[in-house]
Amino acid sequence: MRSVNVGRKFLADYQSIILKDLLAEIKELAAPLEGRRVLHVNATSFGGGVAEILYTLLPLMNDVGLQAEWQVMTAEREFFDVTKSFHNGLQGAPVELTDEVRSVYEDINRRNAAQLTSDYDFVVIHDPQPCAMRTFVADGGREASWIWRCHIDTSTPDQALYDYLLPFIRRYDRAIYTVAGYAPDGLGVPLEVVPPAIDPLAPKNMTLVPDDAHYIVRQFGIDVDRPLLLQVSRFDPWKDPLGVVDAYRAVKQRWPGVQLALIGSMASDDPEGWDYLEKLTAYVGGDPDVFVLSNLDNIGSVEVNAFQSHAAVVMQKSTREGFGLTVSEGLWKARPVVAGDVGGIPLQIEDGVTGFLVDSSAACAQRCLEILDRPEWAHAMARKGKEHVREHFLTPRLLRDYLRIFNGLLAGRA
């Protein structure tokens, strides 16, 4: 297991952004948790939404008086091949659950569990990769309350895979899902429903003036005088980047000057991403108005911010999506957003009010055309989306939800 340095953040810095009642509630909930030790465990510290959330959530937990730590599993490529198939299987893809697959998964979880030698009050395990650690930890985890946080849309999983994972999940004291409908019947663990959130003060989401955004995106070959369609996501079939290219091509028939940027990050726990990036690049062909970029091209948080702040349309055309942080990111920057009508995305978008929900490339293209044809109307809608994010999907709200859960678990021990 490897510890992650999360730095420092201060809840007081969010006072001008969040509602006053929320700030007061956080302080009240934090008081009885003073000094309590919290451990978060996941599979990677870079390249995914979970990592982004933890880099903000943990320092805020520390700021309000808890002692929060973050550790990342150590494992070989073979393990991440297995857990990527589990991720896909929980979203509905078939999984070949052989004895070898089970052995790889359980052996790595057992090895990492053996490294948990400190005492904690709460242990939060994120997603399927470290899910079995609770079963293998020494002394039953001592006196900690264990929480499994599932960030995936598991509403239609490969049932054999879920049947395999459920005994591990049932060892937990709580399970957190983004949407209640993601949890299976017979979960056997008290359920909490908690959507993720974005950090408005992180480099990825802080305010950029238009000139700065233009300067940054221009360095990657974007013509800032022509409209830009954008999707920021892992290179993954569930994010449907090929469908985004199809939508762009349809838009380009009416708006020949339109450009498309597809920005992804190559995460250490996603070995399939490299293969899909190659497939996407081949599908794009030699179109000079399509830009496929990643952290390998020196795209970091500030660069993503610049692209989102500049884009005429932010897209998230997922076919399955646990939540889709990029939807809230785009709305927070008051950009018109078109996204798949799946998973946790409808929590963020009221169709036709704060953005658009679509179920095909053709529908995506049509909504993009409406936005390009009527920019003032589209931006008025996006501003409503920003206020919806302010109320529901900023990190202090997520902090409050965890504090509520921790207090509930403490009360249950009494």
Can you give keywords for this protein?
single chain; alpha/beta; globular
Question: Strand sequence of the main sheet, in spatial order?
Answer: 1-3-2-4-5-6-7
Note the beta-strand portion.
5-15%
How far apart the termini lie comes to: 32 Å
According to DSSP, the number of beta strands is: 13
The backbone outline, from C-alpha atoms, is globular
Task: Give the integer mean of the pLDDT values.
Answer: 94
Q: How would you characterize the largest beta sheet?
A: 7 strands, mixed
What structural class do you assign from the helix and strand content? alpha/beta
What share of residues is helical? 40-55%
Query: What order do the SSEs take from the amino end to the carboxyl end, as H and E?
Result: EHEHEHHEHEHEEHEHEHEHEHEHEHHH
Helical run tally: 15
* Rg over C-alpha atoms, rounded to the nearest angstrom: 21 Å
- Identify low-pLDDT runs: none
